[in-house]
Amino acid sequence: MVTACRSGQTGQLRILVLAGGTSAERDVSLESGHAVAETLLQRGHSVQILDPALTPLSTATDSDIILPMLHGTGAEDGTLQHQLEQHGIPWLGSSAAASALTFSKSATRQALAAAGLPVAPGCTATADDTPASIEQAARALGTPLVVKPSAQGSSIGISVVHSWDQLPDALELAFRWGPQIVLERWIAGREITVPVIDGQLFPAIEILPARPWYDYQAKYGDLQTRYQPNPKGLPDALLPAVLRAVQLCGVSAISRTDLRVAPDGTFCILEINTVPGMTSHSLVPMSIAAAGWDAGELLELLLWRRLQSQAAGAAA
């Protein structure tokens, strides 16, 4: 549970929010960007929104700090973070290396498994593999089977295969989004997500979709999807595993780790999101509220801490 002190510096910050972009998650990014801009404006800060799809990042020179709310390819995969490193203005978020690692579901699986953290039984396939070899690997895992792009967010390109005649279409869909895909055994049970903010665990949220699983429509279009903060009966090892996974991958600032909990109490880590959605119906703001924080207040504190850290590093 969060124990962060609310005290911090005061004064107006010049904040540049990055939102939009060119990825498949552009619309969600714009909504996230406008949501955080509004809450920071309400706290008296000077906030501008820049859409890199329309305006070059190189033109942004009069800000104290950058708050990236860009999602998806080119935004969470280390590309943007490399650009920010060259730009010279501090930003709130994970490093390029941590972003690249966690945006690859395949690389994340390997890193977590090597550290003894639980992941779903699965494997990686590439466009160079033969259809026969991919099907053989899939059948070894059995059905139901999750087929997903290795590098994509918001459940884009994901299929749940219940019968083998569905596999070709699932593979074709996943490979539309990149040359590498992940096959994982479907874990029946509870869908849980846990934010880690500035190194501290925030309340878990249980996702209760009205649809068979938490797909894109359930996330953004189905008003019947329900959410339960601080759900009961989670395994004792789950929260420590989330914190260890985030630390292992070098993730900082705001992140959200998604998991499945089986009926027998075992669980697996599905992925770590380094720029999670911050819309009015996103999971991280729900967790922030459940912890008793105002999202704007918390963002303000994190931005000041980032600037203080930058200043301390420069003075060292």
Could you characterize the architecture of this molecule?
By secondary structure, this protein is α+β, with helices and mostly antiparallel strands. It has 3 domains: 14-92 and 294-309, 3-Layer(aba) Sandwich (Rossmann fold); 101-117 and 188-290, D-amino Acid Aminotransferase, Chain A, domain 1; 122-185, Dna Ligase, domain 1. The chain has 10 helices and 13 strands. The strands form 3 sheets. Strands 8, 9, 10, 11, 12 and 13 form a 6-stranded antiparallel sheet that branches.
CATH H-tier superfamily of the largest domain: ATP-grasp fold, B domain
Task: Summarize model confidence as the mean pLDDT.
Answer: 90
DSSP, total strands: 13
Shape: globular
The helicity comes to 25-40%
Largest sheet: 6 strands, antiparallel
Radius of gyration: 20 Å
**C-alpha end-to-end distance:** 32 Å
